[in-house]
Amino acid sequence: MDMESLMVLLFLFLARAEAASYGIGISAGADREEKAGGGAVLLPLMVQEVAPPSGAPANRLRFRHNVSLTVPVAVGTPRQNATMVLDTGSELSWLLCNESNLPPPPPPPVSFNASASLTYGAVPCWSSACMWQGRDLPVRPFCDTPPSKACRVSISYADASSADGLLAADTFILGGAGAPPVTALFGCINSYSSSTATNNNNATDPSEAATGLLGMNRGSLSFVTQTGTRRFAYCIASREGPGILILGGDGGAAPVLNYTPLIEISQPLPYFDRVAYTVQLEGIRVGSSLLPIPKSVLTPDHTGAGQTMVDSGTQFTFLLGDAYTALKGEFMRQTRPLLAPLGEPEFVFQGAFDVCFLGTEARVAAASRLLPEVGLVLRGAEVAVAGEKLLYRVPGERRGEEAVWCLTFGSSDMAGMSAYVIGHHHQQDVWVEYDLENGRVGFAPARCDLATQSLGVKL
């Protein structure tokens, strides 16, 4: 074994020891710690809008995200500021590294300069992390082409974006200036392709462009697992200003929550994501009408298709087959006096949303106050969607003085997914807690902007 390999092994050993010793039991200040529950890290949670590709009709775009949730972190020694997309549906965290081949090259605040960090270390392909720790990834880490000794990762997502690079380790600092570093494995990405441009040069402020992704599912390489986090929560503000992400703690800051158990399936099934936050969808209601959907439609089948995932990395909510058809028909029936259908059968927003309407901003705003609430009925809890969160104004689509609006529930089948997905748009002004210790997810209505202010979290 050469000296370089020995040093990398030593670095990774110390990285795991440091992560285990710190866990996520750090805080951004004593006063905040007391309010949030002992040992919690508090971070501002921002809604970042991505401009659609110029000149592309909305009904010709592939499934994509217009909005992401982002959190600020610092990485490396000396510290480099980064903005990462919060994604409970992904495992491995990653950063765009300075070798990125995106055209044009990203400016300094958008990429992580690995060569400038004294604590950065690439993982060799013969290490345990490369050989077995990535077992939950869709594509396991693999050895680079000889004579390289590097461990490579290749990641792809439902929106057709993909990322490729090296598996590496470095220090992450979350919270205030006094927070200790946590060492974690991540993907140092040097090749990235996306229709949504996570490296968003179209952001209003380039400094707010996302540098990468913070993987928060239950896989062995997720940030949650690596740091030993047993509880985290967020509250997404629907108004201007930040929401909040709370890592660790005892949940003391949470309102009274209704919990639904996480669903576990031990045997591997081809279409079941075992490390996702899977819950049981019991039914769907529109207003007071519970849709006549057979229970079998809402339960994973023998292949694992049909699970229901809570996912902060997906914007809208997606329903499979018969459930989507039932919601579409009942929503159209109940809103017939309030909304004018678009009347263009070929218009399907992002290839998955075909319940669309036409109206001025004023007319739709008035109608939103009268729309029937849509409830996703879970085992022991419910996610209720009402008012303006039911409709989304399609960017760039107008018919004279009227805009095009689509229902914010899409078809999983049309999007090429085999699952129900509860996206972050329908989690706005909802306190969502992931309690891994007790195997459950909690929900409660909340004014997230006020909750953020009361806990003293600022940008």
Gist of the model:
This protein has 459 residues and is α+β, with helices and mostly antiparallel strands. It has helices spanning 3-22, 30-36, 128-133, 223-226, 321-334, 361-368, 412-415, 448-454, and strands at residues 40-49, 67-75, 80-87, 94-96, 121-122, 142-143, 151-156, 162-173, 182-193, 212-215, 231-235, 243-248, 258-261, 278-279, 281-286, 289-290, 308-310, 317-319, 340-341, 356-359, 374-378, 381-385, 391-399, 402-407, 409-411, 420-422, 430-435, 440-445. Strand 2 (67-75) and strand 3 form a beta hairpin.
- Count, helices: 8
Major β-sheet profile:
6 strands, mixed, barrel
Cα distance spanning the termini: 46 Å
Total beta strands: 28
The fraction of residues assigned to DSSP E strands is 25-35%
- Residue stretches low in confidence (pLDDT < 50, at least 5 long) are 1-9, 11-34, 60-64, 100-109, 196-208
Strand order of the largest sheet: 2-3-10-4-9-8
- Bin the helical content: 10-25%
Assembly state: single chain
The radius of gyration over CA amounts to: 22 Å
